[in-house]
Amino acid sequence: MKFFIRLSALMFTIMVLSMSTIAKADQLNVGDTAPEFKLVDQHGKTHSIKDYAGQWVVLYFYPKDDTPGCTKEACEFRDEYKLLKEQNTQVLGVSIDSKESHAKFAEKYHLRFPLLADEGGEVAKRYQSLFSFWPIKFAKRHSFIIDPQGIVRKIYRKVDPDTHSQKIIADIETLSSKESTTK
């Protein structure tokens, strides 16, 4: 019995360390060029950061289609989508679910923006948004605002699904006004 308690404690420690350890040399920071990717959406269309040159991009990672927090966050973006488009902003959701899973999720909740399938988790990993512990793997709830030139302008490592879209809208408004005053 003591062996299993010690083993459980060791596994828990390893899990906590793996969740909190990010190599500082590979850390993505505000001001960095957004890592490029090519991922398919729920309709089979391929998307990359370069496709959105000249637009703001909200790249949001989420753990799993059709789960409570992920549904809340996606529906908040859906409800604010018109306003985001008026801000010249494209929303892109990313999880490690398949395009088929994304298609069902998008249809069920009438999501009008692309949900990108990062089935291997490689893009989430480049954005330090992948949780991986043995066979368990999912995208962490992180978001990034990328400016029209492809530069990361804001990183959210702690996200409240209930209010995140409103925070994004306010931050894009602030960032856009700063950009227009520097031109």
How are the SSEs placed, and which strands pair?
Layout: H1 2-20, E1 39-40, E2 46-47, E3 56-61, H2 68-79, H3 81-86, E4 89-95, H4 99-109, E5 115-117, H5 122-126, E6 130-133, E7 136-139, E8 143-146, E9 152-156, H6 164-182
Parallel strand pairs: 3-4, 4-5
Antiparallel strand pairs: 1-2, 3-8, 6-7, 8-9
Can you summarize this structure?
The chain is of the alpha/beta class and about 180 residues long. The chain has helices at about 1-20, 70-80, 80-85, 100-110, 120-125, 165-180; strands at about 40, 45, 55-60, 90-95, 115, 130-135, 135-140, 145, 150-155.
Structure description:
The chain has 183 residues and is of the alpha/beta class. The protein has one domain (25-182): Glutaredoxin (3-Layer(aba) Sandwich). The protein contains 6 helices and 9 strands; from the N terminus they run αβββααβαβαββββα. It has a 5-stranded mixed β-sheet with strand order 5-4-3-8-9. The protein has a two-stranded antiparallel ribbon with strand order 1-2. α4 links the parallel β4 and β5. The radius of gyration is 17 Å and the shape is globular. The chain starts with a helix and ends with a helix. Residues 12-25 have low confidence and may be disordered.
